[in-house]
Specification:
Number of strands: 5
Radius of gyration: 17 Å
Distance between the termini: 33 Å
Structural class: alpha/beta
Helix content: 40-55%
Number of helices: 5
Strand order of the largest sheet: 3-2-1-4-5
Order of helices and strands: EHEHEHEHEH
Length: about 190
């Protein structure tokens, strides 16, 4: 099909065999994008990168230095970043009163602070604009028992993505609007 020829995609969270991130990365590759997969298990990332003729890079979303290194590695290996996907996650299923401070800190680091900083790193690397994709959850908007920490983190990250769109969407529109081959908009 080739709808993504000329695009460079980073897919974070692809260290689990057959997980959603790997399915996304594989489809991007089938559509012609260059793909760099990232996560914490380098053996699986390298195996999968060979399978799809892509690139692999170790990255822990909870470490700012890893995220900045991921952005740099993507630019070094593929020349640009045009698509950035965060497909990391951890589903803590635990009653509200039994959720420990340590679990709450871990959940927040993985599903709120990490994505916040991942998108900061990717936006800085997207010199020509691009697409940010956050894999969310239906639980960010519905009610389930024993999911408070997970649901709160996902809902918070969803709102951050709306803030990013609000802040940077106008810049993307301005870049598109003034291309000669683009139709004029009012």
């Amino acid at each position: 099909m080739g709808r993504l020829v000329g695009k460079a995609a980073v897919v974070l969270g692809a260290a689990g065999r057959g997980n959603m991130a790997q399915c996304i990365a594989k489809r991007f590759r089938e559509e012609g994008a260059q793909v760099l997969v990232a996560g914490r298990k380098m053996d699986e990332l390298q195996r999968f990168a060979r399978e799809i003729d892509g690139h692999a890079f170790p990255c822990d979303i909870t470490r700012t230095a890893d995220l900045d290194a991921l952005a740099k590695a993507t630019l070094d290996r593929m020349g640009s970043v045009t698509i950035a996907v965060n497909a990391t996650g951890w589903g803590l299923l635990k009653p509200y009163l039994e959720t420990t401070t340590e679990e709450l800190v871990r959940m927040t680091a993985l599903q709120f602070i990490g994505p916040f900083q991942f998108f900061q790193s990717m936006i800085r690397a997207m010199t020509g604009g691009g697409s940010l994709i956050q894999i969310s959850s239906a639980t960010a908007t519905i009610m389930l028992n024993d999911h408070a920490a997970y649901m709160g983190a996902k809902a918070g990250t969803d709102h951050v993505v709306r803030c990013i769109a609000n802040e940077f969407g106008k810049q993307a529109y301005a870049r598109i609007r003034f291309r000669r081959d683009s139709p004029k908009r009012p």
